[in-house]
Design goal:
Blueprint (H helix, E strand, L loop, with lengths): L2 H13 L48 H7 L3 H9 L17 H8 L2 H9 L14 H7 L3 H9 L14 H7 L3 H10 L17 E4 L3 E6 L2 E5 L3 H9 L7 H12 L5 H14 L8
Antiparallel strand pairs: 1-2, 2-3
Helix pairs in contact: 1-7, 2-3, 3-5, 4-5, 4-6, 5-7, 6-7, 6-8, 7-9, 8-9, 10-12, 11-12
C-alpha cells in the first residue's frame, strides 16, 4: 500500500474515533453531482470574472479524464492520471463552476484528490457560489477527502458567497463525521454566516449528552473535541513525564468519563507540572 494511503487511513481512523457508526467506515450513498444545464452559459466578462473561468461544459466533454471524474468512475480516472497520458485541463470549469477537484471531493476519492493536487490543481479554487473543494467534501460527509485537502493546505475557515464555511455546510446537511473531522482539525465554530448564524448555533451542549448536532433531520451525538485538543496542544510539552502521558491516554480512552471529567483530569495533570492550559 502506498505510504500516503497508509497515512490517510491512519489519520481517518483517528478523526472518526469514538463517533457512532464510524467503525463500519461506510459512507452514505453517493450523492450524484448536479445535473448539467440544457445549454452552456455564456462566458462572463468584466472585473468580477473568476480568473480561470471558461465556458460551462456539458457531458460528454470530449476529454476522457473529465468524463471519468464527473461520472464518478474514479478508478478509471486514477489510471488515466497515473499513466501520464491523459490531457489535464487545469482551468476547465463545468456546471456551477466546479473544477475536476470539486467533483473528486464530492465523490470522496482521497487518492484521486491527492493526484489532482500533485498535478498542480489548486485546492482553494471556488465555484460560482464561492465553494472550495473542501466545502463540497464537507457537504457530502467525505472525511478522507477532507483530510487530504486539509493536509495539503486548503483553508478550513474560508467562507463561500453566503458566508458559510465547510463546518457550516457539514452542520446544516446532517454530516456528523465531517463535523467531527473538521473540529478536530481545528475549524472554528464561532464564525457567523451572512445571516449572523454560526456553526455552533447548531451544536447544543449538555452535561449528559456532550455536543449534539442539530439538523433538519433531528440530532445526533458528536464527540466533544476539547479533551483531544488539550492533548494535541500540550502532549509534547517537555515538562510532562512518561507516566503523565500514560495517565492522559487512559483518561481519553475511559468509556465512563464524560468530556467535562476528561478536561478536568487532564487539566489537573498539566497544572501539577507547571503548565497552565487554555483550550485551543
Amino acid at each position: 500500500m502506498p505510504r500516503h494511503r497508509l497515512a490517510v487511513t491512519a489519520l481517518t481512523l483517528w478523526l472518526t474515533a469514538g463517533l457512532p457508526g464510524s467503525a463500519a467506515a461506510v459512507d452514505r450513498p453517493l450523492s450524484p453531482p448536479p445535473a448539467p444545464p440544457l445549454a452552456p452559459r455564456p462566458t462572463p466578462t468584466g472585473p468580477g470574472t473568476p480568473p480561470l473561468f471558461q465556458a460551462v461544459e456539458i457531458l460528454p466533454t470530449g476529454c476522457p479524464l473529465c468524463d471519468a471524474i464527473i461520472s464518478g468512475r474514479t478508478a478509471e480516472a486514477r489510471a488515466l492520471l497515473g499513466d501520464g497520458r491523459a490531457t489535464f485541463p487545469m482551468g476547465r470549469r463545468f456546471h456551477q463552476g466546479w473544477t475536476l477537484l470539486h467533483f473528486a471531493a464530492c465523490h470522496g476519492d482521497a487518492d484521486l484528490v491527492l493526484l489532482l493536487l500533485k498535478r498542480g490543481l489548486p485546492g482553494d479554487l471556488r465555484d460560482h457560489g464561492g465553494n472550495t473543494p473542501l466545502h463540497i467534501a464537507a457537504r457530502h460527509d467525505r472525511i478522507e477527502a477532507i483530510l487530504v485537502l486539509a493536509m495539503k493546505g486548503s483553508p478550513l475557515d474560508v467562507a463561500n458567497a453566503v458566508g458559510k464555511t465547510p463546518l457550516h455546510l457539514a452542520a446544516e446537511n446532517d454530516c456528523p463525521r465531517a463535523v467531527n473531522a473538521l473540529m478536530r482539525l481545528g475549524a472554528r465554530a464561532d464564525l457567523p454566516d451572512a445571516e449572523g448564524l454560526t456553526a455552533a448555533d447548531r451544536l447544543a451542549g449538555s452535561q449528559d449528552d456532550g455536543l449534539r448536532l442539530k439538523t433538519r433531520r433531528g440530532s445526533g451525538e458528536v464527540p466533544d473535541p476539547r479533551p483531544e485538543r488539550l492533548w494535541k496542544k500540550y502532549g509534547g510539552d517537555f515538562r510532562l513525564l512518561g507516566s503523565d502521558r500514560d495517565r492522559i491516554g487512559r483518561i481519553l480512552a475511559h468509556p465512563r468519563l464524560d468530556s467535562d471529567a476528561r478536561v478536568g483530569l487532564i487539566t489537573g495533570i498539566l497544572r501539577r507540572r507547571g503548565i497552565e492550559p487554555s483550550l485551543p
